[in-house]
Amino acid sequence: MxxxxxxxxxxxxxxxxxxxxxxxxxxxxxxxxxxxxxxxxITKGYMGYKGVLGHEFVGIVVAIGDKVPKNIVGKRVVGxxxxxxxxxxxxxxxxxxHCPNRSTLGIFKKDGCFSEYFTxxxxxxxxxxxxxxxxxxxxxxxxxxAYEILEQVHIKPDSKVAILGDGKLGLCISxxxxxxxxxxxxxGKHENKLKISRDIGxxxxxxxxxxxxxxxxxxxxxEATGSTGGFETSVSLVKPRGTLVLKSTITAKxxxxxxxxxxxxxxxxxSRCGQFAPILRLLxxxxxxxxxxxxxxxxxxxxxxxxxxxxxKGTLKVLVKF
Length: 322
Ligand SMILES: [Zn+2]
Ligand SMILES: [Zn+2]
Prior knowledge:
Elements: E1 3-7, E2 9-13, E3 25-35, H1 37-42, E4 51-52, E5 56-64, E6 76-79, E7 82-83, H2 89-92, E8 103-105, E9 109-110, E10 117-121, E11 125-127, H3 134-138, H4 140-152, E12 161-164, H5 168-179, E13 185-188, H6 191-199, E14 203-206, E15 218-223, H7 228-237, E16 238-246, H8 259-263, E17 267-270, H9 277-284, E18 294-299, H10 303-311, E19 317-321
Protein backbone atom coordinates (compact mmCIF):
# COMPACT_ATOMS: atom_id res chain seq x y z
CA MET A 1 0.00 0.00 0.00
CA UNK A 2 1.01 3.63 -0.45
CA UNK A 3 2.33 5.36 2.68
CA UNK A 4 4.13 8.60 3.45
CA UNK A 5 7.04 7.46 5.60
CA UNK A 6 9.59 9.44 7.55
CA UNK A 7 12.87 7.66 8.18
CA UNK A 8 15.77 10.14 8.05
CA UNK A 9 14.04 11.44 4.92
CA UNK A 10 10.46 11.78 3.80
CA UNK A 11 9.25 9.52 1.00
CA UNK A 12 6.10 8.13 -0.55
CA UNK A 13 6.56 4.34 -0.35
CA UNK A 14 4.42 2.36 -2.83
CA UNK A 15 4.72 -1.10 -1.26
CA UNK A 16 4.53 -0.44 2.48
CA UNK A 17 3.23 -3.47 4.34
CA UNK A 18 -0.45 -3.39 5.32
CA UNK A 19 -0.88 -3.21 9.13
CA UNK A 20 -1.79 -6.29 11.20
CA UNK A 21 -5.13 -5.95 12.98
CA UNK A 22 -5.28 -6.48 16.78
CA UNK A 23 -8.30 -8.08 18.54
CA UNK A 24 -9.65 -4.73 19.75
CA UNK A 25 -8.75 -2.76 16.65
CA UNK A 26 -10.40 -1.63 13.43
CA UNK A 27 -8.71 -1.37 10.04
CA UNK A 28 -9.43 1.98 8.43
CA UNK A 29 -9.17 2.82 4.72
CA UNK A 30 -8.18 6.47 4.52
CA UNK A 31 -10.44 8.84 2.57
CA UNK A 32 -8.72 12.11 3.40
CA UNK A 33 -5.92 13.24 5.70
CA UNK A 34 -4.75 16.62 6.97
CA UNK A 35 -1.15 17.73 7.35
CA UNK A 36 -0.40 19.32 10.71
CA UNK A 37 2.59 21.30 11.93
CA UNK A 38 3.36 18.40 14.27
CA UNK A 39 4.03 16.22 11.19
CA UNK A 40 6.45 18.84 9.97
CA UNK A 41 8.11 19.05 13.41
CA ILE A 42 8.63 15.26 13.34
CA THR A 43 10.65 15.60 10.14
CA LYS A 44 12.78 18.07 12.11
CA GLY A 45 13.38 15.54 14.92
CA TYR A 46 10.37 16.01 17.25
CA MET A 47 9.66 12.84 19.35
CA GLY A 48 12.44 11.01 17.45
CA TYR A 49 9.62 9.28 15.55
CA LYS A 50 10.19 7.14 12.46
CA GLY A 51 7.39 5.51 10.46
CA VAL A 52 4.18 6.49 8.69
CA LEU A 53 3.21 10.06 9.58
CA GLY A 54 -0.28 11.51 10.07
CA HIS A 55 -3.00 11.79 12.71
CA GLU A 56 -5.78 13.86 11.12
CA PHE A 57 -8.13 11.82 8.95
CA VAL A 58 -11.52 10.60 7.88
CA GLY A 59 -11.82 7.02 6.65
CA ILE A 60 -13.97 3.91 6.34
CA VAL A 61 -13.76 0.87 8.59
CA VAL A 62 -13.03 -2.07 6.28
CA ALA A 63 -12.10 -4.84 8.74
CA ILE A 64 -12.31 -5.49 12.49
CA GLY A 65 -10.57 -7.52 15.19
CA ASP A 66 -12.29 -10.47 16.90
CA LYS A 67 -13.50 -8.43 19.90
CA VAL A 68 -15.01 -5.52 17.92
CA PRO A 69 -18.80 -5.14 17.30
CA LYS A 70 -19.58 -5.98 13.68
CA ASN A 71 -21.87 -3.01 12.99
CA ILE A 72 -18.91 -0.61 12.69
CA VAL A 73 -17.82 -2.21 9.40
CA GLY A 74 -18.46 0.05 6.41
CA LYS A 75 -18.97 3.14 8.60
CA ARG A 76 -17.27 6.47 7.92
CA VAL A 77 -15.22 7.39 10.99
CA VAL A 78 -12.80 9.80 12.59
CA GLY A 79 -10.64 8.79 15.54
CA UNK A 80 -8.83 9.99 18.65
CA UNK A 81 -5.11 9.56 18.28
CA UNK A 82 -3.85 8.39 21.67
CA UNK A 83 -3.94 4.61 22.06
CA UNK A 84 -3.94 3.85 25.79
CA UNK A 85 -3.31 0.64 27.76
CA UNK A 86 -6.73 0.84 29.55
CA UNK A 87 -5.08 -0.79 32.53
CA UNK A 88 -3.18 1.89 34.48
CA UNK A 89 -4.34 4.42 37.10
CA UNK A 90 -4.53 7.20 34.45
CA UNK A 91 -6.72 5.07 32.17
CA UNK A 92 -8.93 4.06 35.11
CA UNK A 93 -9.54 7.77 35.78
CA UNK A 94 -10.59 8.35 32.16
CA UNK A 95 -7.34 10.18 31.35
CA UNK A 96 -6.26 7.90 28.49
CA UNK A 97 -4.58 10.85 26.79
CA HIS A 98 -2.05 10.82 29.65
CA CYS A 99 -1.56 7.05 29.83
CA PRO A 100 2.21 6.57 30.28
CA ASN A 101 2.02 3.39 28.18
CA ARG A 102 0.23 5.04 25.27
CA SER A 103 1.21 5.14 21.65
CA THR A 104 0.05 7.99 19.44
CA LEU A 105 -1.06 7.68 15.84
CA GLY A 106 1.72 8.86 13.54
CA ILE A 107 3.61 10.53 16.40
CA PHE A 108 4.82 7.88 18.84
CA LYS A 109 5.20 4.11 18.43
CA LYS A 110 2.27 3.73 16.01
CA ASP A 111 2.11 4.12 12.24
CA GLY A 112 -0.11 7.03 11.23
CA CYS A 113 -2.90 7.72 8.77
CA PHE A 114 -0.83 8.98 5.81
CA SER A 115 -1.29 5.57 4.22
CA GLU A 116 -4.05 3.70 2.42
CA TYR A 117 -4.81 1.60 5.52
CA PHE A 118 -4.04 1.97 9.23
CA THR A 119 -5.39 0.64 12.53
CA UNK A 120 -6.86 2.22 15.67
CA UNK A 121 -8.47 0.72 18.78
CA UNK A 122 -12.26 0.42 18.30
CA UNK A 123 -12.65 2.55 21.43
CA UNK A 124 -10.98 5.48 19.63
CA UNK A 125 -13.24 5.70 16.59
CA UNK A 126 -16.40 7.75 16.14
CA UNK A 127 -18.91 7.11 13.40
CA UNK A 128 -19.80 10.41 11.78
CA UNK A 129 -23.10 11.59 10.41
CA UNK A 130 -23.64 11.96 6.63
CA UNK A 131 -24.07 15.71 6.93
CA UNK A 132 -20.39 16.15 7.86
CA UNK A 133 -18.42 16.18 4.59
CA UNK A 134 -14.93 14.69 4.25
CA UNK A 135 -13.04 17.99 4.42
CA UNK A 136 -14.91 19.08 7.54
CA UNK A 137 -14.44 15.66 9.19
CA UNK A 138 -10.68 15.83 8.64
CA UNK A 139 -10.60 18.91 10.89
CA UNK A 140 -12.10 17.04 13.88
CA UNK A 141 -8.73 16.41 15.54
CA UNK A 142 -7.38 19.99 15.44
CA UNK A 143 -10.80 21.37 16.44
CA UNK A 144 -10.93 18.93 19.37
CA UNK A 145 -7.51 20.21 20.44
CA ALA A 146 -8.98 23.72 20.40
CA TYR A 147 -12.02 22.59 22.41
CA GLU A 148 -9.73 21.06 25.05
CA ILE A 149 -9.08 24.62 26.34
CA LEU A 150 -12.71 24.79 27.47
CA GLU A 151 -12.42 21.47 29.30
CA GLN A 152 -9.52 22.92 31.25
CA VAL A 153 -10.33 26.61 31.81
CA HIS A 154 -13.63 28.05 32.94
CA ILE A 155 -14.34 31.08 30.76
CA LYS A 156 -17.04 33.20 32.36
CA PRO A 157 -19.50 35.29 30.33
CA ASP A 158 -17.74 38.49 31.42
CA SER A 159 -14.17 37.17 31.00
CA LYS A 160 -11.91 39.23 28.75
CA VAL A 161 -10.30 36.72 26.39
CA ALA A 162 -7.58 37.02 23.75
CA ILE A 163 -6.26 34.47 21.27
CA LEU A 164 -2.72 35.27 20.15
CA GLY A 165 -1.57 33.80 16.84
CA ASP A 166 -3.44 33.59 13.53
CA GLY A 167 -2.00 30.38 12.09
CA LYS A 168 -4.03 27.17 11.66
CA LEU A 169 -4.10 26.55 15.41
CA GLY A 170 -5.23 30.06 16.33
CA LEU A 171 -7.90 29.98 13.62
CA CYS A 172 -9.23 26.58 14.81
CA ILE A 173 -9.53 28.02 18.32
CA SER A 174 -11.32 31.06 16.92
CA UNK A 175 -13.83 28.83 15.04
CA UNK A 176 -14.60 26.80 18.18
CA UNK A 177 -14.88 29.83 20.47
CA UNK A 178 -17.22 31.60 18.02
CA UNK A 179 -19.37 28.49 17.66
CA UNK A 180 -19.83 28.59 21.43
CA UNK A 181 -20.47 32.35 21.52
CA UNK A 182 -17.37 33.14 23.55
CA UNK A 183 -16.42 36.80 23.35
CA UNK A 184 -12.74 37.30 22.50
CA UNK A 185 -10.27 39.32 20.46
CA UNK A 186 -8.08 37.48 17.97
CA UNK A 187 -4.62 39.05 17.73
CA GLY A 188 -2.21 38.19 14.93
CA LYS A 189 0.28 39.42 12.35
CA HIS A 190 -1.60 38.65 9.14
CA GLU A 191 -4.52 40.74 7.97
CA ASN A 192 -5.68 38.05 5.48
CA LYS A 193 -5.88 35.41 8.22
CA LEU A 194 -7.51 37.65 10.80
CA LYS A 195 -10.15 38.34 8.16
CA ILE A 196 -11.22 34.67 8.42
CA SER A 197 -11.94 35.28 12.10
CA ARG A 198 -13.62 38.60 11.42
CA ASP A 199 -15.86 36.99 8.80
CA ILE A 200 -17.36 34.75 11.48
CA GLY A 201 -17.95 37.69 13.77
CA UNK A 202 -14.81 37.77 15.90
CA UNK A 203 -13.06 40.94 16.97
CA UNK A 204 -9.53 41.10 15.61
CA UNK A 205 -6.43 43.20 16.11
CA UNK A 206 -3.05 43.30 14.42
CA UNK A 207 -0.12 42.71 16.74
CA UNK A 208 1.29 46.06 15.59
CA UNK A 209 -1.86 47.79 16.90
CA UNK A 210 -1.35 46.60 20.48
CA UNK A 211 -1.03 49.50 22.88
CA UNK A 212 -0.38 49.96 26.57
CA UNK A 213 -4.14 49.69 27.05
CA UNK A 214 -4.09 45.96 26.28
CA UNK A 215 -1.15 45.15 28.55
CA UNK A 216 -2.30 43.18 31.62
CA UNK A 217 -5.92 43.56 30.54
CA UNK A 218 -7.09 39.99 29.75
CA UNK A 219 -8.45 37.38 32.16
CA UNK A 220 -7.55 34.58 29.76
CA UNK A 221 -4.95 34.62 26.99
CA UNK A 222 -4.59 31.67 24.64
CA GLU A 223 -1.11 31.46 23.15
CA ALA A 224 -1.07 29.85 19.70
CA THR A 225 1.89 31.55 18.06
CA GLY A 226 4.49 28.80 18.22
CA SER A 227 7.21 31.32 19.00
CA THR A 228 9.12 32.47 22.07
CA GLY A 229 8.30 36.09 21.21
CA GLY A 230 4.62 35.16 21.09
CA PHE A 231 4.88 33.54 24.51
CA GLU A 232 6.37 36.69 26.00
CA THR A 233 3.71 38.91 24.41
CA SER A 234 1.03 36.54 25.73
CA VAL A 235 2.36 36.80 29.28
CA SER A 236 2.34 40.60 29.04
CA LEU A 237 -1.36 40.62 28.09
CA VAL A 238 -2.58 38.61 31.11
CA LYS A 239 -4.10 40.44 34.07
CA PRO A 240 -2.64 39.74 37.53
CA ARG A 241 -4.16 36.44 38.72
CA GLY A 242 -5.24 35.69 35.14
CA THR A 243 -4.70 32.54 33.08
CA LEU A 244 -2.38 31.86 30.20
CA VAL A 245 -3.20 28.82 28.07
CA LEU A 246 -0.28 27.41 26.10
CA LYS A 247 -1.39 25.62 22.93
CA SER A 248 1.79 25.65 20.86
CA THR A 249 4.67 23.42 21.84
CA ILE A 250 7.45 25.99 22.02
CA THR A 251 10.83 24.43 22.55
CA ALA A 252 12.69 27.56 23.60
CA LYS A 253 16.40 27.47 23.03
CA UNK A 254 17.01 30.87 24.56
CA UNK A 255 16.08 31.83 28.14
CA UNK A 256 12.51 32.79 29.01
CA UNK A 257 11.92 35.57 31.52
CA UNK A 258 9.21 34.27 33.84
CA UNK A 259 9.47 36.95 36.55
CA UNK A 260 6.12 38.55 35.66
CA UNK A 261 4.39 35.15 35.90
CA UNK A 262 5.45 35.10 39.56
CA UNK A 263 4.85 38.78 40.30
CA UNK A 264 1.38 38.78 38.71
CA UNK A 265 0.56 35.28 39.98
CA UNK A 266 -0.41 34.06 36.52
CA UNK A 267 -1.76 30.54 36.12
CA UNK A 268 -0.21 28.75 33.16
CA UNK A 269 -2.20 25.88 31.64
CA UNK A 270 -0.65 23.55 29.09
CA SER A 271 -3.23 22.24 26.64
CA ARG A 272 -2.89 19.47 24.04
CA CYS A 273 -5.36 16.97 22.47
CA GLY A 274 -9.07 17.03 23.15
CA GLN A 275 -12.13 14.82 23.00
CA PHE A 276 -14.00 14.32 19.74
CA ALA A 277 -17.62 14.03 20.91
CA PRO A 278 -18.27 17.74 21.64
CA ILE A 279 -16.70 18.81 18.32
CA LEU A 280 -18.70 16.27 16.30
CA ARG A 281 -21.84 17.73 17.87
CA LEU A 282 -20.84 21.23 16.73
CA LEU A 283 -19.95 19.98 13.24
CA UNK A 284 -23.23 18.07 12.94
CA UNK A 285 -25.22 21.16 13.79
CA UNK A 286 -23.24 23.15 11.17
CA UNK A 287 -21.93 25.59 13.80
CA UNK A 288 -18.40 25.49 12.33
CA UNK A 289 -17.35 26.15 8.73
CA UNK A 290 -13.76 25.00 8.16
CA UNK A 291 -13.63 25.76 4.43
CA UNK A 292 -11.86 29.16 4.75
CA UNK A 293 -9.00 27.30 6.47
CA UNK A 294 -8.28 25.01 3.51
CA UNK A 295 -5.19 25.90 1.49
CA UNK A 296 -5.36 23.08 -1.05
CA UNK A 297 -6.44 19.45 -1.50
CA UNK A 298 -3.71 17.26 -3.06
CA UNK A 299 -3.90 13.79 -4.54
CA UNK A 300 -2.02 11.07 -2.64
CA UNK A 301 0.42 10.70 -5.56
CA UNK A 302 1.64 14.24 -4.82
CA UNK A 303 1.99 13.74 -1.06
CA UNK A 304 5.60 14.89 -0.83
CA UNK A 305 4.73 18.07 -2.73
CA UNK A 306 1.74 18.60 -0.40
CA UNK A 307 4.07 18.21 2.59
CA UNK A 308 6.48 20.77 1.16
CA UNK A 309 3.59 23.15 0.53
CA UNK A 310 2.50 22.77 4.16
CA UNK A 311 5.99 23.59 5.43
CA UNK A 312 5.95 27.01 3.76
CA LYS A 313 5.34 29.79 6.24
CA GLY A 314 1.79 31.07 6.38
CA THR A 315 0.19 28.06 4.67
CA LEU A 316 -3.30 27.16 5.82
CA LYS A 317 -4.53 23.53 6.06
CA VAL A 318 -3.17 21.24 3.35
CA LEU A 319 -5.29 18.13 2.78
CA VAL A 320 -4.56 14.92 0.89
CA LYS A 321 -7.20 12.81 -0.83
CA PHE A 322 -6.64 9.06 -1.06
ZN1 LIG B 1 -2.10 17.75 14.62
ZN1 LIG C 1 -2.98 3.36 30.62
